[in-house]
Amino acid sequence: MTTIAFNPKNGTWSYDSKTKTFMVSEKEIPFATSYLVQNTSTGNFMEFEFTHSTGSEFDPTTRWVYKSKKMDLTLEVCNDAKMCKQAASNYLAAKTGRS
Question: Cβ neighbours of residue 74 under 8 Å, at least 6 residues apart?
């Protein structure tokens, strides 16, 4: 489990109150199968477990979806277009032997 800090004041995370979903870019946090998210304002922690992705790892619109075990909350880690392009290029180079 990877521990990450959520600072509601820094503006890198968003929250949709209708769907009870937190959203953050993959640029902001490392990939993990589970997260222990600490709210830096309250000191409280929430656990999220990976459930599914909405597409390919190389698709910039893909979101990695995590659900809270104890609360009805979702965390979505959103792919970044530049990071996806670089990852796809690196993958292709590794598979074809090109650098």
Answer: 19, 20, 21, 22, 65, 66, 67, 68
Among candidates 23, 32, 20, which has minimal Cα distance to 4? 32
Enclosing domain of residue 31: 2-96
Question: What is the value of pTM for the model shown?
Answer: 0.87
Per-residue pLDDT tens digits for 69-84? 899 999 999 999 999 9
The H-assigned helical ranges of 5-68 are none
Q: How many CB atoms lie within 10 A of CB 73?
A: 17
Question: Domain tally for the chain?
Answer: 1
